[in-house]
Amino acid sequence: MNRPMQPEELALRRRRSRRTALVVGLVAVAIYVGFILSGVLAH
């Protein structure tokens, strides 16, 4: 039913998932820094 993935397909999927993980990580860091800055600037 499922055919084995070709090396090109596997490399493309890895690249996409790495980019997605990087974007999600950057968004998380931005939110974290935003909360810290809001706490610091509020005083």
Report how far the terminal alpha carbons are from each other. Answer: 61 Å
β-sheet strand percentage? under 5%
What's the count of strands? Answer: 0
Cα radius of gyration in angstroms: 18 Å
Structure description:
This protein is an all-alpha fold and 43 residues long. The chain is 84% helix and 0% strand. The N and C termini lie far apart (61 Å).
Summarize the structure.
By secondary structure, the protein is mostly helical. 84% of the residues lie in helices and 0% in strands.
Keywords for this entry:
mainly alpha; 43 residues; rod-shaped
Please outline the helices and strands.
Blueprint: H1 7-42
